[in-house]
Amino acid sequence: MELFWHRRDLRVADNVGLAAATGARDDDRGPAAPVFVFDPDVLDHASDVRVRRLLDGLAALRADYRDRGSDLLVARGDPETVLPELAGALDADRVVWNRDYSGLARERDASVRTALNDAGIDREAHHDAVLHTPDSIRTNAGDPYSVYTYYWKKWTGRETDAPAPTPEASDLVDADALATTVGGDGGALADGGGRPDGGVEADRVAVGDLPSPADLGFAEPDADIGAAGTEAARDRLDAFLSEAVFSYDAERDYPAREATSRMSAFLKYGEIGVREVYEATERATAAAEERTAKDDEAADGDGGGSDSDDDEGGPVAAVEEYQQQLAWREFYAQVLFHNPEVVTENYKTYEEGIAWRDDAEEIAAWKRGETGYPIVDAGMRQLREEAFMHNRVRMIVASFLTKDLLADWRHGYEHFRETLADHDTANDNGGWQWAASTGTDAQPYFRIFNPMTQGERYDPEAEYITEYVPELRGLDADLIHEWHELSPTQRANAAPEYPSPIVDHSERREEALAMYKRARGEDPEE
Ligand SMILES: Cc1cc2nc3c(=O)[nH]c(=O)nc-3n(C[C@H](O)[C@H](O)[C@H](O)COP(=O)(O)OP(=O)(O)OC[C@H]3O[C@@H](n4cnc5c(N)ncnc54)[C@H](O)[C@@H]3O)c2cc1C
What we know:
six-stranded mixed beta sheet; 47% helix; 22 helices
């Protein structure tokens, strides 16, 4: 028997470590008992939104185990204490988990390894969260990549593993056996009899009993965070890959269109396996090739027209564009793996240091979505309402915070960490440091988004803006996109409840350029 420790992999399907521990892959192993541990150190860094999302993901995982006649063990405490005790009580041969590449998780895993060694219990860690491990793609000189385009060239077309096999009921310890061992009257843990030196305290482990957010010290979030779990992830992915993916490259930047997959929270909690997602995109590529061939035939039949191979884009390229986003996720995972300090430090060195302005009132207005820049405010309010924000808008609000408000990217990162359901240390940090021109392969410091033209280009009819900023509903899109140019009287007449711009973009742009030049040790006047 083995103990499988779930962390950021809340699924039974395509779970590499679970497949190994349960014997789904190798008949000589298993059955396994699955456990999730609420670790106080992890909860210290959690937020209302993410705790709710985690609990929903765990409820879905538990249902998947119950469908297989088993259940999820739920424990509270330091994993380095709980896991050896639980493994001892269950008489498990081994504790198995999937690797997590962030610095904090690696430190925790090292302590758990030591504790298990001390207890004489075997353990095993698997690569699961990414298609290609952080160490597997390196430059020809053997260094990790810091430029995405080169990383992508090695990532794409590389051989990938097939999805890991899904355990069946016989691969899992059944629910009754779990209950007898762990809880209730006479359970090995309830009477402290699991190990010669005492078992796990009874209130630390329960069978399938999930706490409420309040039990963990969190509140119910106001945001509507959407469905969790493998089934919801698969439904969403199937719907996306059946149509939207074929125009993903052309549509993905328009926040009012349902043009992206919304896989981020599912991937963050590991409710769907990345091998499964990738395999589905490969099927989409085959479908795109078929479509292209049919279009070409039809064009030939019409006696001419353009060969779709010559067209820019096309469905095959659109699917590849989607795969590129999966590669960005792995690119940032390897950046974090090789540079754990980026969580708090600039990746790129500015020899004089960046003298951020950090105006508390401006930062607060940004968080509230009251900057008087409609696309920025719409994004910040989408974040508040849905614990999600469209990628293009994340780029716009991040640029606005760092280059219009001249505020340190860490304020933005912290706010996103608190409020995003899909917050992922590697991706969130990568996104912020990209926008602030401090990261790997970042936006050059002199490229500063103009929030008005971004709004005009990517939300021309102001549909996204007016969905989240009701004060501007009913106004002409042109008026909304010119908001910063209107006089105070025009603004007061058009939308009296909506704020005037809190800063002047053109002035702040100049200030930002000077700030970065000084940070680079250059004369801002030149
Ligand atoms: C400032 C900033 C902060 C961000 N914070 C996060 C975060 O905390 N968590 C997160 O998952 N993504 C983050 N992103 C990346 C991106 O915005 C989201 O992954 C994307 O909007 C999620 O929507 P989707 O699933 O519909 O994406 P799709 O366009 O459908 O992309 C598919 C998947 O690819 C990955 N992906 C897409 N874009 C990126 C990217 N730029 N970097 C890394 N992976 C990407 C995600 O896993 C995503 O689910 C951030 C971007 C910026 C600019």
